[in-house]
Amino acid sequence: MKKNLVLVSLLFICGISFIVILPNGSIFFGMGCGFISGAIVNLYKYIYMLNPKNKIQYEEHLKNEQTNLKDERKIMLREKSGRITYIIMFVVLTILNIVFTFIGVENWIVITLWIVIAFKYVCGVVVFYYLAQKM
Amino acid sequence: MILLCWKDYFTFEIGGVELKNKLEEIRKQHGITQEQLAKNLEVSRQTIGSLENGRYNPSILLAFKISKLFKINVEEIFIYEEEKK
Prior knowledge:
The complex is a heterodimer. Chain A is an all-alpha fold. In chain A, 89% of the residues lie in helices and 0% in strands. The longest helix of chain A is centred in the middle third of the chain and has 32 residues, at 72-103. Helix content of chain B is 52%, strand content 7%. Chain B is built from 6 helices and 2 strands; from the N terminus they run αβαααααβ. In chain B, strands 1-2 form a two-stranded antiparallel sheet. The chains are: A mainly alpha, B mainly alpha. The A-B interface holds A 67-68, 70-74, 76, 87, 121-122, 124-125, 128-129 and B 2-3, 5-6, 8-10, 38, 42-44, 46-47, 50, 56, 58-59, 61-62.
């Protein structure tokens, strides 16, 4: 509950600062509005949950949330979907980079993309061996 | 050397050995719903559905939890069958 209030306050402060401190620029204004909207939604949730009428519903919601978080099938599915996304992104990035090279996009973009691909690959290997050593 | 072992994290195992189970039968014998069983085991209802349909094999912990709940041996609930080649 307290975490929610901290999140609301942080979002609100960020939103206000984006609008007030950085007034020039529609991107910051948009981001600020987004943060404030998020804060309002979270504040509404917080107030709704504080209501004694909704206590049972809230407790049920928390229990379901915990169950879904610890559910082994869902954990497995999350891991699997992450792995599939990793491989898909690898292929997409490589194809994109090859296309960019042939189109003749600026060199720094192509080099950055190759670095991202290499980093992704190395990161995957390092994390895998780190986990393998721990297990 | 490490970078060459790409197969370890790029390969996918599709399918595998199937584990048949009598969970649905046992659950119905005890007269409890999928939701009640899920609540007792602290898993989602979808997990129970997948287990009963044989689409998902439980972890050893969950298998023991189920056997403890119904007071039946694990082998009586889950039947291991080797894949026919």
